[in-house]
Amino acid sequence: MKIILAIILGLAFGIALDQAKASYPQKIIGMLHLKDFHLMKVILFSIGFSSLLLFILLSLNLIDAGHLSVKTTYAGVIIGGAILGAGFAIGGYCPGTCVVAAGRGRKDALAFLAGGLLGALVYMLIFGLIKDAALFDKIAGGAVSLAETNPEKYTSLSGNLPALLVAGPIAILFMLIAFFLPEGTES
Amino acid sequence: MKKPKSWLKGGLLLGSVFLVAVWLVKPVGVSTQFVVLDGIVWNLLSPDLISQNDASQAYESSNAYLNKSGGKYASLVANPLNYGFIFALSMLVGGFVSGKLSRKKISNEDRISPKVWRDRFGASAKKRYAFAFFAGFLALFGARLAAGCTSGHMMSGMMQTSLSGYLFAAGAFATAIPIAILVFNSKRSS
């Protein structure tokens, strides 16, 4: 059953990324050099929209909180993000979109994917040397979120406040920014 | 002609997939699958990479990364027909299907490099592939250090209001924006 879901959801995600033009390097670079904000609007809106519905459904107990997965916070998250950002800017792809773009027939996406396989391999090879570094020390308790998600597994930074009261306004803010951000010049 | 609010359609579509994924299974994430594919190939070349503990049945690896968190990744490599790996393979098919669904085809030159790249660096395919390879290297090295990428940290993370998601996004855009401006806003080199 889970495999069937993997096939359907992966297919849907691939189609959605491509239809939203998130797998178009032209659009990614257009966003990053602050010319064409189409994708910024897509990203902000999709985060706000999915987040608002997620927390509404959670508050109604319609989603199993055990499905949520809050990742650990440590300095490496920021540094790794910054390294990824460099590749994102130069290549115009990220780890997910390069897979979709390769399926769409983009050859530079295949080159990015191949580079990614090597980058991941080098990380696997050096991990043993860096695994005890301060880089991996938890920040703010590790797996924490602003709104309460799953109190059995994760800590909330907003204490006992109802999750929707915290996540709702953030989600609406994301959607508002998406609406009011100018489109920029289409590239 | 450009349809009005095409960003809204894209955002609704993408947001719905993120929501349905966490509703039915778990948040979307991709970059782990690069490790899984590396591991599968490595394990084919040297089958002693992954082993199974006789007593506990748990998977173990001689590689420290595959062995971490109780052999979590080692187990994924040993059983490639798992949710995350099939999900990523389906994304590739999704890209193909999306191309079939789209009326507008991608031009041959756009298959090699985006226009913004050609305007700056010319149409050389070799040059574009070399830099795309290098960019992919950085992106996946960074994603593994951060234990997540744009999908897992930025989108799924911020959807759940994870602190790590906001910090990851801040880190990524802090380098991506200045580098993109520096690289693509200067005049064409000869």
The stretches of 5 or more residues of chain B where confidence is low (pLDDT under 50) are none
User: Roughly what percent helix of chain B?
Assistant: over 70%
The total beta strand count of chain B reads: 2
Distance between the termini of chain B: 34 Å
Number of helix segments of chain B? 9
List low-pLDDT spans of chain A.
none
Name a few traits of the molecule:
heterodimer, A: 187 residues, mainly alpha, two-stranded parallel ribbon, 2 strands, 63% helix, B: 190 residues, 2 domains, two-stranded antiparallel sheet, 9 helices, 70% helix, globular
Describe this structure in words.
The complex is a heterodimer of chains A (187) and B (190). Chain A has 187 residues and is mainly α. A two-stranded parallel ribbon of chain A has the order 1-2. The N and C termini of chain A lie far apart (42 Å). Chain B folds into two domains: 94 residues, no CATH class; 85 residues, no CATH class. Chain B is globular, with a radius of gyration of 20 Å. The mean pLDDT of chain B is 94. Chain B is mostly helical. In chain B, strands 1-2 form a two-stranded antiparallel sheet. In chain B, a hairpin with a 6-residue loop joins strand 1 and strand 2. In chain B, helix 2 crosses helix 3 and helix 8 crosses helix 9. The chains are: A mainly alpha (187), B mainly alpha (190). At the A-B interface, helix 1, helix 2, helix 3, helix 4 and helix 5 of A face helix 1, helix 2, helix 3, helix 4 and helix 5 of B.
Summarize the structure.
Chain A is an all-alpha fold.
Describe the secondary-structure layout:
The complex is a heterodimer of chains A (187) and B (190).
Chain A: H1 2-19, H2 25-32, H3 38-59, H4 75-91, H5 95-104, H6 107-130, E1 144-145, E2 155-156, H7 163-180
Parallel strand pairs in A: 1-2
Helix pairs in contact in A: 1-5, 2-4, 3-7, 5-6
Chain B: H1 6-24, H2 32-45, E1 50-52, E2 59-61, H3 64-78, H4 83-101, H5 108-112, H6 115-121, H7 125-146, H8 150-159, H9 163-184
Antiparallel strand pairs in B: 1-2
Helix pairs in contact in B: 2-3, 8-9
